[in-house]
Amino acid sequence: MSGLIMALVQVLVGIFLYVNCLMIFTFLNKAVFREDTRYILFAQTLFVDSALMVLTDMLMILSLYQYRIHMIPCIIMFVTAFTICTPLTLVAMCLERYVAICMPLRHADISTSRTRFLGLLIIWGISSVVPLFTLVAYLSVVPPGSLFSYDVCSVELMLGQEWQAQIRVTILQLLFLLMIIIIVFTYIKIMTAARAASSDNKKSTNKSLRTVILHAFQLFLCIMQFLSPYIEMVFLKIDVSVYGHLRYADFVIFIIAPRCLSPLIYGLRDEKFFHALKHHAFFNKLSLTMSLIISCGDGLPLKTKCY
């Protein structure tokens, strides 16, 4: 049964990565997207979510088969800044919508290349706080020789001491409390602007309001992702089989699901990006078909079948 569930999870991961790669390709091939703050932040979420998905999927597979790996690669996978980067980027997206709706005349002056660079620097800097603490705390409690040992890589291994888990959770709670406050603030401001907007601008304002709500839901799922390992550790002591099923459920609900919302919000709901995405998807299929036709026409060996 676990093998079937794992196969289904891998299908979901494959679909997710394919869609994300197609969207990243669309972003890179359109200069208008590379110069817009909201699309730059969106592209960052695509890249970060794809990298995080690959890492967490590898860890889940290794943990399922109890495969022992060297501790240094295990530590590197756990101290990555990718885990916090997506929630912070969601907050930055909400702030960008707040500026665009509530301060439209200043939006062009605020949304500059210098501001974008500073914003991305702040996002990655804050994202490194929790991984840096996890690394320092782990190195402070383990013997130096254990760094060159082999073990099953899991979050329980990195949070062996109770104080490590408690401090990590406290930092995450403070961080996410701050992010929730910012999102609620932007929601209230955009909702106020929506009520005061004219009929011409009301549609755009309401769409931005729905976008903020979706980002808030994403943030909630991301928060649950960080809390789920502590719940899993409790079930690990009670029943190993329940623990295994719980890990699958947490992976799908709190890791795959919130990261599927970003392509939905900006890839399908955004008309400009959706049209560009359809164009590249159709163009790639057409190019592949034409290359096969040309290859067949150039005289491939008789054994080769062209469909």
From TrEMBL:
InterPro entries, per database record: GPCR1_Superfamily_Member, GPCR_Rhodpsn, GPCR_Rhodpsn_7TM
A GO molecular-function annotation: olfactory receptor activity
Keyword Membrane: yes
Keyword Ligase assigned: no
GO cellular component: membrane
Signal peptide: none
Subcellular localization: Membrane
SUPFAM superfamilies in UniProt: Family A G protein-coupled receptor-like
Keyword tags: Membrane, Transmembrane, Transmembrane helix
Pfam families: 7tm_1 (PF00001)
Membrane spanning residue stretches: 6-28, 40-64, 70-96, 117-141, 167-188, 209-228, 248-268
Positions of the G-protein coupled receptors family 1 profile domain: 19-266
Gene3D superfamilies: Rhodopsin 7-helix transmembrane proteins
PANTHER family on file: G_PROTEIN_RECEP_F1_2 DOMAIN-CONTAINING PROTEIN, GROWTH HORMONE SECRETAGOGUE RECEPTOR TYPE 1-LIKE-RELATED
Name of this protein: G-protein coupled receptors family 1 profile domain-containing protein
Source species: Pygocentrus nattereri
Taxonomic path: Eukaryota, Metazoa, Chordata, Craniata, Vertebrata
